[in-house]
Amino acid sequence: MGKYWEDFEVGSAYFSEKRRIEEEDILQFAQVSEDLNPLHIDEEYAKQTPYGTRIAHGMLVLSKVTGLHYGLGVFKGTSLGVLEIEWKFKKPVLIGDEIQFEAIVEDKIPTSKPDRGILIRSILVRNQKGEVVQRGKFVNMIRKNKK
Predict the structure, then answer these.
(1) 50-75 tens-digit pLDDT
(2) Residue 146: is its pLDDT beyond 80?
(3) What secondary structure, in 3-state letters, does the chain show?
């Protein structure tokens, strides 16, 4: 079971595992999302852009963040859903980059329902150089422990 609302402390932080962004990730995401922008899938086209090469879809990286969260088990069986995401794309993520996120608990808000609360976390996504490539906030509804 994941962590309950009461288990989180404002100001506490946790980190995900590192994940390498592979060419296959980008190609599969392009197919699933139907975002076939040549910036992501056509190297010759991408060479003519300011990046000089293909870059990962910003939403692919955000999706990886949600998957990395799931892999941590933090919200296994306790998340009741995402209420809001505020997100900024700061730098491109290239094929071969490794990403990792840091989550910082910003606030916990009780609700009128005794079995749930709201959790607000800041998320910083860094590449292998330590550069912040994406950042934002997640607002989640989380189960409370009924003890």
Answers:
(1) 999 999 999 999 999 999 998 999 99
(2) no
(3) CCCCHHHCCCCCEEECCCEECCHHHHHHHHHHHCCCCHHHHCHHHHHCCCCCCCECCHHHHHHHHHHHHHHHCCCCCCEEEEEEEEEEECCCCECCCEEEEEEEEEEEEECCCCCEEEEEEEEEEECCCCCEEEEEEEEEEEECCCC
**Residue 44 C-alpha from the chain's centroid:** 29
- What is the rounded radius of gyration, in angstroms, for the C-alpha atoms of the chain? 17
The Cα–Cα gap between 147 and 144 comes to: 9
Question: Domains (ranges, CATH) in the chain?
Answer: 5-143 (3.10.129.10)
Q: What is the pLDDT of residues 35-47, one digit of tens each?
A: 999 999 999 999 9
